[in-house]
């Protein structure tokens, strides 16, 4: 059911879609943000269809979703294969009767100097991160069109707005996802299909195993670039854009600040980002052998949401520091207010620097 609603649907009208009983397909659901998103939808009573390459990890994710209260189906899929993605959509519709939401989330990462990374790896990143989303969108849209409503969510990244060194293919892919989303949105508008929404989500650095999975030709170990936020935060943002569709949602204050700042001082942000990645994203002390990561073959195991980058702890510390700063400011303001005399018009003028002789009320000279 779709309810017309005056709410925070910034940039995309004001329609509230209820999540309960909706059918949600999520690619990249075996790990990280995709897996957290599947759980978040399942916990709100949605039926979730989970896609990625790892069967064991998908089966585990399916059990988590069922335990959270949702119905779930796992469909092992490689998103670079358009037929497999069509089959994913078909199986979702066959099992649950329709598709209401499609979340394109599957992606791979590649770090290394632009001129040194193998060309095949560069191409593979674009194949998974861009063509995988194209395949997803082309599989989902016929269902959404036929119903006249639904939401396509494309997970991009802050790196799609503010580029980073040693990650050209990844940044290109994430910028392409934003363009892809805008272009499809325009076509749907021209078709008059106002009920079908396309939203891009741009997370900051998130605590997932993406950096362990990444192909790496930098010779240096990769660390999540702080501040690192929890995957559940992105999952909540994705659920929110489905409920109140927006064209773009940026997740994490750091990402919001960075994007605003890069509009004001693009040169400065570009230089700062280069230094930060070189200083904090890539270890100077810990070497790493060249690796193609999970580009072509998934890692073994049951997968996980977190990458062990202590997102939770850092979030707690950040919250505690913010709370302490707010409390301190309030206490200071209260003390300052108590110390003040009541403000008369005369006081105000003298504070504004008007000499007292100029503003004495007549008759009191
Ligand atoms: N973590 C961050 O800091 C961050 C920040 C901004 C944006 N993002 C974006 O968030 C999304 C999720 O990333 P994540 O951090 O959760 O990374 P992740 O834990 O590595 O998850 C990536 C997912 O993509 C799947 N995948 C990779 N290649 C695939 C293929 N060919 N076919 C099907 N599935 C494939 C992986 O599963 P299998 O290996 O089982 O196939 C996995 O489920 C990505 O779009 C990423 O760009 C992440």
Automatic annotation (TrEMBL):
Transmembrane segments: none annotated. Gene3D superfamilies: NAD(P)-binding Rossmann-like Domain (3.40.50.720). Pfam families: adh_short. Residues 22-204 form the Ketoreductase domain. Keywords: Oxidoreductase. Belongs to the short-chain dehydrogenases/reductases (SDR) family. This is SDR family oxidoreductase. It comes from Actinomadura luzonensis.
């Amino acid at each position: 059911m779709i309810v017309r609603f005056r709410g925070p649907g910034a940039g995309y009208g004001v329609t509230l879609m209820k999540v309960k009983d909706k059918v949600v397909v999520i690619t990249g659901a075996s790990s990280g943000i995709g897996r957290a998103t599947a759980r978040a939808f399942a916990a709100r009573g949605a039926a979730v269809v989970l896609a990625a390459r790892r069967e064991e990890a998908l089966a585990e994710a399916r059990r988590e979703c069922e335990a959270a209260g949702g119905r779930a189906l796992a469909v092992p899929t490689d998103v670079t294969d358009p037929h497999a993605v069509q089959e994913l959509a078909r199986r979702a519709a066959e099992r649950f009767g329709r598709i209401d939401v499609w979340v394109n989330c599957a992606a791979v990462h590649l770090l290394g100097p632009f001129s040194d990374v193998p060309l095949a790896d560069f191409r593979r990143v674009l194949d998974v991160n861009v063509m995988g989303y194209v395949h997803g969108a082309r599989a989902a849209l016929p269902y959404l069109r036929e119903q006249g409503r639904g939401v396509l969510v494309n997970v991009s990244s802050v790196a799609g707005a503010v580029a980073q060194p040693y990650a050209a293919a990844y940044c290109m892919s994430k910028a392409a996802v934003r363009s892809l989303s805008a272009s499809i949105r325009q076509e749907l508008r021209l078709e008059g299909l106002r009920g079908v929404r396309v939203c891009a989500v741009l997370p900051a650095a998130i605590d997932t195993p993406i950096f362990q999975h990444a192909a790496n030709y930098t010779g240096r170990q990769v660390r999540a670039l702080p501040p690192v936020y929890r995957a559940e935060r992105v999952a909540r943002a994705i659920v929110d854009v489905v409920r109140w569709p927006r064209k773009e949602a940026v997740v994490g204050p750091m990402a919001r600040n960075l994007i605003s700042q890069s509009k004001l001082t693009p040169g400065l942000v570009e230089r700062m980002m280069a230094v930060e990645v070189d200083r904090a994203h890539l270890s100077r002390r810990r070497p790493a052998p060249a690796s193609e990561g999970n580009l072509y073959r998934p890692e073994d195991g049951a997968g996980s949401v977190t990458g062990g980058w202590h997102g939770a702890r850092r979030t707690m510390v950040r919250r505690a520091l913010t709370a302490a700063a707010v409390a301190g400011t309030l206490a200071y303001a209260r003390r300052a207010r108590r110390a003040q005399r009541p403000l008369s018009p005369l006081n105000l003028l003298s504070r504004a620097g008007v000499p007292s002789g100029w503003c004495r009320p007549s008759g009191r000279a």
